[in-house]
Amino acid sequence: MKSKIIVTGGLGFIGSHTVVALHEAGFEPIIIDNLSNSQLSALDGIEKLIGYKPQFAQFDVNDAPALRQLIEESKPHAVIHFAAFKAVGESVEKPLMYYRNNVGGLVTLLEVMKETGLTDIVFSSSCTVYGEPAEIPVKESTITKPAESPYGATKQMGEVILKDNAPWCNTQCLRYFNPIGAHPSAEIGELPLGVPNNLIPYLTQTVAGIRESLTVFGNDYDTPDGTCIRDYIHVVDLAEAHVSAVKRLIDKSYQNAFEVFNIGTGNGSTVLEVINSFESATGLKVPHTIGGRRAGDVVKVWAETTKVENVLGWKAKRNLETMLRDAWNWQVKLSK
Ligand code: WQD
């Protein structure tokens, strides 16, 4: 009998790749998604990759009765909670929507988990909680700073809520750095809904001719080439980190009820380095101009990965060129 794992937001960018990785690791994923920021076509892509259509329930995590019924019927071993809004700029314009969905959704999920005796959760957090990091590379013990957006605040609140519910609730809290790329099959990837805020989808849409030119937000920062530095991580590596976290939750040989891990590669790349890496990986030019700084941008952030390697036994395997080549192959598939 395969261990069932509920994946909220399982048709989203990271969720869909995690569903595939869970299957490949011998788990049975069950998807919850309200399709507010994803599309049903992701389920077809998942089916092509794993050979069957996983159980999918379309409802919002704030729908407690539906959540309770699914948990009671499926008796999962754990939940991976992705369902949340994640656009920094949008969160500034619509803070209440973010608090209702991201914080309210987590509270509802935890209430129903407590009622149904489900204790194990993997929580999707973000390096955003560090703000402009107090030290580089960032450790899990690096001080977190006041959030610079409602989105970041919802991630910080989520971590506090989970910590306050230990030890009845067992949490593996994963702080993502910058997830990019797509499954190498190009069957699943990051669905573009509107004008992309993030660098890679905007870059690939520019190369595909959908966007005029990529604007590099500032080249006067204190970095080697003046552009901001990020720790970009392949979405398949990130998905595999979630499988490692689920395995740790199910393995009751440890007692920590709230554990935090930085999920990054440990390498930082500037925006111009990303552009150059894309051009050498694909042989295609990226039309770009240098523009002004973007408000709220952190200058440099990348992960210190000793803890996740030693405790979870996970390490990113894919390099930047692979991430960018897979991102481009997905864009080509979308443009067909
Ligand atoms: C990366 C770099 C930009 C677009 C955000 C969230 C984070 C996570 C990932 C959810 C920056 C530069 C970007 C463009 C550019 N979200 N850039 N031109 O801001 O590091 O992280 O998304 O999990 O929580 O904060 O990602 O891709 O927007 O920006 O020059 O058109 O690319 O200035 O230096 P960011 P990003």
Tell me what the structure shows:
The mean pLDDT is 96. The protein is 40% helix and 16% strand. It contains eleven helices and 13 strands. It has a seven-stranded parallel beta sheet, with helices on both faces. Strands 7-10 form a two-stranded parallel ribbon. Strands 8-13 form a two-stranded parallel ribbon. It has 336 residues and is α/β, with parallel strands linked by helices. UDP-4-deoxy-4-formamido-beta-L-arabinopyranose binds next to helix 7 and strand 8. UDP-4-deoxy-4-formamido-beta-L-arabinopyranose is lined by residues 86, 88, 126, 128, 176, 178, 197-199, 202, 214-217, 228, 230, 271, 294, 297.
Structural class per helix/strand content?
alpha/beta
Name the bound molecules. UDP-4-deoxy-4-formamido-beta-L-arabinopyranose
Helix content: 40-55%
- Flag low-confidence runs: none
Mean pLDDT comes to: 96
Percent of sequence in beta strands: 15-25%
Number of helices: 11
